[in-house]
């Protein structure tokens, strides 16, 4: 029951998700040397949690924590502890900033781009790029399962077997997917020019504006604290 509630995330306007990820990421890069950068990540996580991204946080953050810890430990071999910590912070920043973007639907993003008259070739490129990672992961998983069922081993130290059992099937499958994509675009009447219609339109809601405003206030406060200090506070 709890997991189902977490899954039912209320989506934010896709364009706001993309802009939020870019804004918080680049501002975070500028602030990563601050001693309180951990608070920047924590508050950003709280904002995402407040706007209903708990399920995505539970899925994404543990992975990035492990990767950040690994990067930090590796960095200790050639850098100071503070620099290693900052390297781990940068990895965490990627995951925390991308949470809204990772949870949005690819089709919603395409609809959003069509509404604001983004060129069709760019929209198609975004859609393929967003779907490609999942499709590739699924195909790799299927090929590995097929290799296990046949009792073969395509380990890296057996390149000849890996080439025949893994690389060749993957290349053939990618070529088949590209052919299916071309046929799908053709049968659906996709074209680069001309007027198009949409079955479903996305509308801005008060929740979207509240999310954007909270991110802007948060980023502004972080920049003010980093570069303006506390001198703007009244002195007593």
Detailed description of the structure:
This protein is an all-alpha fold. It folds into two domains: 2-105 and 204-224, no CATH class; 108-188, no CATH class. It contains ten helices and no strands. It has helices at 2-7, 14-31, 37-50, 54-75, 81-97, 99-103, 106-115, 120-149, 159-187, 206-228. Helix 4 (54-75) runs antiparallel to helix 5 (81-97). The chain is flat. Residues 1-8 and 231-236 have low confidence and may be disordered.
DSSP E strands, number: 0
Mean pLDDT: 79
Number of helices: 10
SSE order, as H and E?
HHHHHHHHHH
Biggest pleated sheet: none
First and last CA, distance = 52 Å
Number of domains: 2
Helix content: over 70%
Q: Structural class, from secondary structure content?
A: mainly alpha
Low-pLDDT runs: 1-8, 231-236
What key phrases describe this protein's structure?
74% helix, disordered N terminus, 236 residues, 10 helices, disordered C terminus, 2 domains, mainly alpha
Which secondary structure elements does this structure contain, and how are they paired or packed?
Layout lengths: L1 H6 L6 H18 L5 H14 L3 H22 L5 H17 L1 H5 L2 H10 L4 H30 L9 H29 L18 H23 L8
């Amino acid at each position: 029951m709890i997991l189902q509630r977490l899954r039912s995330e209320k989506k934010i306007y896709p364009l706001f998700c993309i802009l939020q990820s870019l804004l918080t990421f680049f501002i975070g890069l500028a602030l990563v040397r601050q001693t309180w950068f951990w608070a920047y990540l924590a508050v950003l996580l709280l904002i995402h949690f407040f706007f209903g991204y708990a399920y995505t946080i539970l899925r994404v953050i543990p992975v990035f924590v492990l990767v950040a810890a690994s990067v930090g430990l590796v960095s200790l071999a050639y850098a100071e502890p503070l620099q290693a910590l900052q390297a781990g912070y940068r990895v965490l920043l990627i995951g925390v900033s991308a949470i809204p973007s990772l949870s949005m639907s690819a089709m919603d993003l395409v609809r959003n781009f069509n509404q604001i008259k983004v060129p069709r070739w760019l929209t198609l490129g975004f859609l393929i790029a967003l779907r490609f990672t999942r499709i590739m992961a699924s195909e790799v998983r299927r090929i590995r399962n097929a290799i296990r069922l046949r009792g073969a081993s395509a380990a890296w130290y057996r390149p000849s077997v890996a080439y025949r059992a893994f690389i060749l099937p993957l290349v053939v499958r990618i070529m088949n997917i590209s052919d299916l994509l071309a046929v799908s675009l053709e049968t659906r009447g996709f074209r680069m020019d001309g007027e198009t219609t949409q079955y479903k339109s996305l509308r801005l809601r008060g929740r979207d504006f509240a999310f954007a405003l909270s991110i802007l206030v948060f980023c502004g406060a972080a920049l003010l604290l980093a570069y303006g200090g506390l001198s703007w506070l009244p002195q007593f």
